[in-house]
Amino acid sequence: MVKLIRRCTVGVWLLAISVVSCTPTIQVAPPSEPITINLNIKIEHEIKIKVDKELDDLFESESDIF
Q: Alpha-carbon torsion 34, 35, 36, 39, what sign?
């Protein structure tokens, strides 16, 4: 009975060692080159103002309002 228990124990240890040795290894390492972020952004905007004809005439006649 003791021999059977020892064989099972040895078998379990061998199985455990073989399972652990086959696990993949994950490494976290910094990159060899710095990280660059290219931010070439072109922003175009267009503002359109519509003024009523009466307001336009008022601005022309009384230019010292502003």
A: negative
Angle at 60 between CA 57 and CA 61, to 5 degrees: 85
The predicted-structure confidence for 25-63, as pLDDT tens digits, reads as follows 788 888 889 988 888 888 888 877 776 777 777 777 876
Q: How many helices (H) and strands (E) does the chain have?
A: 2, 0
Q: What is the DSSP letter of 12?
A: H
Burial 28-65 (b: 16+ CB within 10 A, else e): eeeeeeeeeeeeeeeeeeeeeeeeeeeeeeeeeeeeee
